[in-house]
Specification:
501 residues, mainly alpha, 21 helices, 4 strands, globular
């Protein structure tokens, strides 16, 4: 990272006690005041829709309830708890609810992050690393379940790294965290995967006579974590669902957040990688073999999938914190006197109350005078109104508009649940909508008896339909374009049961 490091810090200062709280409060207010930026992914719509269904039925889904093409197909929600929380927040406060919930989650993650770095760095450096982690994650900060799982990820990995740094094993009281993570988001698989390299670091650093016993403890912890991650309504199927996403193969190369990092233009992520290389050469940093492997794993993930850059930003500093920290600084007399003042029983509590009151007052004041709105490119309200007026039933839509169609009770051809549709179906769709295979577009329109299309303006398929026999452009605005069949009677009114709800 592009920061200098200092020695491990054992001296106490008032700033150290206040830093995590202040960072969290500042981050929360920043995210709240820019909250519309969190509402720019139509997946939020179907996440809330599923959450509301769970609340209404007091059950979790085991099959698809919404799509045109996969209705009734097996599907489970590996983020059911996040969806319930988002739905509850939305039902009480409108779009302000998901914004507040997401902002709180990110702020909590930053507080935990700074608190974990507190043992190794000066407060200024911890804050700088927190700002860098936030900026690296900014592209993926949207109101979706992964944000609610972010503080759990930081706490889980941070606690394991802390145990490894102390050459011991983590407390088994940590296991409920992975269980919570498994109910919040499918990314808990990363938490399981990181147990082995972190355990190897602990065993590697331990004295020879302790290695066998320590390794056994870590193995018991890993088995406990595996069992805890199955403590969901779906049991061990939760593990299978998490793995299914990574089995999508070629699909991951066409979905924006799963694409590899782009280095065609300079980015903050590239700057961080170059700074790391320069820092390693300049400081002649020496890492143990397990810590090298762990670092390379995080870098590989970030290079492979853009969405993993946030894990790199939050977890990489935790991995390198102890090796970069030098010898502890002595506690001087002035610091001791300040510590005595700060240790008065009312000071921490009073400070927390004052900060919390200020944050809550700011939240109430801002949300009363500001109406949060979803970005137009993901919520083509006017175009969908036209579809509803025309009573379109079988709509071929752009991938990014599927969630909004679900919110408007129109079954989408496809939406953000790529694991539901599978690699072959999804790739056939992307080849068609991107204009790579015109015959594939014709086949899908005919096979699924599509009577209208809802595509983003820039879609190649929208331009192809302008020149395709039997189709005519009905509506267009800055967001979306609608095509309908020139002769609706060409479509059999009775849908085929094998492809339609």
């Amino acid at each position: 990272m592009s920061v200098s490091v200092t020695g491990g810090v054992e001296s106490y200062s008032p700033a150290r006690g206040l830093t995590p709280l202040c960072v969290g409060a500042a981050a929360y207010l920043l995210l709240l005041f820019t909250g519309d930026a969190l509402l720019q992914d139509s997946d939020t719509f179907w996440q809330i829709k599923v959450g509301q269904w769970i609340i209404d039925h007091r059950a979790v889904p085991y099959s698809d309830l919404y799509s045109l093409t996969k209705f009734g197909a097996p599907w489970i929600s590996n983020a059911w708890l996040s969806q319930v929380l988002f739905a509850a927040a939305y039902s009480h406060w409108g779009w302000a609810g998901p914004v507040i919930l997401s902002s709180l989650a990110i702020a909590t993650a930053l507080m935990i992050f700074v608190r974990l770095l507190d043992a190794y760095f000066e407060p200024a450096h911890s804050v700088l690393l927190a700002m860098l982690a936030l900026m690296l994650s900014w592209h993926h900060l949207v109101a979706r379940p992964h944000l609610l799982a972010l503080p759990v990820m930081v706490a889980w990995v941070g606690a394991m790294m802390s145990a490894a740094d102390r050459r011991t094993y983590p407390s088994f009281l940590l296991l409920p965290l992975i269980g919570l993570w498994a109910n919040l988001h499918g990314g808990f698989a990363l938490g399981l995967a990181l147990i082995a390299p972190i355990a190897l670091e602990a065993v590697w650093s331990a004295t020879p006579e302790r290695r066998v016993a320590l390794g056994a403890r870590w193995m018991m912890f890993a088995l406990g974590a595996l069992a805890a991650s199955c403590c969901t309504p779906y049991g061990w199927n939760t593990l299978l669902a998490a793995a299914r996403i990574l089995d999508l193969g070629e699909v991951l190369s066409v979905i924006a957040e799963w694409k590899p990092a782009d280095f065609t233009s300079f980015s903050l992520f590239e700057g961080c990688l170059l700074s790391l290389i320069g820092l390693a050469f300049y400081k002649k940093i020496v890492l143990s073999v397990p810590r090298i492997l762990l670092s390379l794993l995080l870098v590989h993930m970030a290079l492979s999938h853009a969405r993993s850059i946030e894990a790199f930003g939050f977890l990489f500093p935790l991995v390198l914190a102890k090796p970069l920290a030098g010898p502890p600084r002595p506690v001087d007399a002035v610091a001791l006197r300040v510590r005595g003042l700060w240790s008065l029983p009312y000071m921490p509590g009073l400070t927390m109350v004052v900060v919390a009151a200020g944050v809550w007052a700011s939240t109430l004041s801002y949300t009363v005078h500001h109406d949060f709105a979803f970005v137009n490119s993901q919520a083509p309200a006017a175009a969908v109104d036209v579809l509803r007026q025309r009573q379109a039933k079988r709509v071929f839509n752009s991938y990014e508009l599927g969630g909004y169609l679900i919110a408007r009770d129109i079954p989408p051809f496809i939406d953000g649940r790529a694991e539901l549709y599978g690699e072959k179906f999804a790739m056939d769709y992307f080849n068609a909508v991107e204009g790579r295979k015109v015959d594939e577009l014709v086949r899908l329109l005919e096979e699924y008896r599509i009577d209208a299309t809802l595509l983003v303006q820039a879609s190649p398929a929208a331009h192809l339909l302008d020149h395709m026999a039997g189709w005519t452009r009905l509506y267009a605005d800055d967001t979306a374009v609608i095509h309908v069949r020139a002769d609706p009677l060409q479509i059999n009114a009775a849908p085929r049961s094998d492809i339609s709800p």
